[in-house]
Amino acid sequence: MAINGRFKVSMGDVFPHGAYVVSEVEPVRDFEKSTRERAVQATDKESGLLVWSVSVLDADPDARKDAKTVTVKIAASHQPIPPEAMAGLPFRPVEFDGLTVTPYVNDNGGRARIAYSLRATGMRAPQLGSGKSAPRANPGEAA
């Protein structure tokens, strides 16, 4: 099979209704290299860059409750900075660059299911004029 490990996807494929940052960007700990006394930050196996994580709210109204908030790991030489907040919105809208998905089997709780690990090379504010409508402060307002 031609797909091994990560495969590239577009932001619209993963988050067709948009996504919102709901946490701080934090370093991912390398559990194999870290000790109780000394934490070591994980590095991306493909790029060698440091790995950071951020929690994101999927704006899809039909998303399952347990899949509403997901973690996106970002490989970057320095800590990524989330986009600025937009007036009237409780969370910061975000788009990810270089988004990839890695499927895996999650057998927590004794019932196996397919889950997905999300990675990116960067994050930024949604681009206006990209063909997608920007989030509105009042979703009930006409565009």
Domain count: the total is: 1
Helix/strand class: mainly beta
Amino-to-carboxy terminus distance: 45 Å
Q: Can you give the mean pLDDT?
A: 86
Alpha plus pi helix count: 1
Helix content bin? under 10%
Query: What's the SSE pattern?
Result: EHEEEEEEEE
Beta strand %: 25-35%
Q: Identify the overall geometry.
A: globular
Sequence stretches where pLDDT stays below 50 over 5 or more residues: 130-143
- The count of DSSP E runs of length 2 or more, i.e. the number of strands, is 9
Gyration radius (Cα, Å) is 17 Å
Largest β-sheet summary: 9 strands, mixed
Short description:
This protein has 143 residues and is mainly beta. 3% of the residues lie in helices and 34% in strands. The protein has one helix and nine strands.
Q: What do you see in this structure?
A:
This protein has 143 residues and is mainly β. It has one domain. Helices cover 3% and strands 34% of the residues. The chain has one helix at 11-14; strands at residues 7-8, 19-21, 26-27, 50-58, 69-76, 92-97, 100-106, 113-120, 122-124. Strands 1, 2, 3, 4, 5, 6, 7, 8 and 9 form a nine-stranded mixed beta sheet that branches. The longest helix has 4 residues, at 11-14. Residues 130-143 have low confidence and may be disordered.
